Amino acid sequence: MKVALLALLGVSSLAFADHHGKEQSLFNGKDFTGWKVPKNNIWWSVADEMIVAKSGPKKRGSNLWTEKEYEDFDMVCDFRFDGSGDSGVFLRDGGQQIQIGISGSLKRDMTASPYISGKGYPVEAEATKGVKGVKSLLRINEWNTLRVRAKGPKYDAWLNGVHVMTYTSTNAKVKGPVGLQLHGNKVMSIDFRKLSITEITKKG
Fold first, then answer.
1. Cα distance between residue 117 and residue 172, in whole Å
2. Nearest Cα to Cα of residue 74 among 199, 204, 203, 162
3. Do β-strands 189-202 and 44-47 pair in parallel, antiparallel, or remain unpaired?
4. How high is the mean pLDDT in each 10-residue block of the chain (204 residues)?
5. Domains along the chain?
6. Residue 2: left if φ>0, alpha if ψ -120 to 50, beta else—which one?
7. N or C end of the chain, less CB within 10 A?
8. Cβ proximity of 192 and 46 under 8 Å
9. d(CA 63, CA 157)
């Protein structure tokens, strides 16, 4: 009886195991195919196989969204900025974000930390091995790699290959697009390249 029960539990566990699909490029390096470009766009451009976000003359903010919506996913991108900007990656909607750069409210770098609308920064990204914060990992004016995993309400982030954050949101959306942010009321620019996404599914 015990053997049968264990076997049944094993089958059940396997039946609902995570399955990663094929990695898909989010950016072809040439144009905004697959993205919803904002009306009267003056903020977003493509140059040298990069997505370039740069403040307009009135310092208005802008978001760039994927046309496709996603449920559970692993998203990876490279970013480069001078350390003074405020950007991030939106997860399924505009209220759930993984920060890149200086927090407007905290006035300090919160890269790889989650910003949740109405809650601020519920946790702060922290490098492993006793290193406080991510300052030692972030490379200013050089390319950095951000990996974000959104599985249901649980978010994980890696900065330059180091896991720095886990957070479970209480109001995460089930499905939605991925977005890039150019924060308003700032003079800033940030470059993105090598954007890709891998969808995570459950095979039941």
1. 11
2. 199
3. unpaired
4. 42 50 95 96 97 92 97 98 95 97 92 96 82 83 98 97 96 98 93 98 68
5. 19-202 (2.60.120.560)
6. alpha
7. N
8. no
9. 20
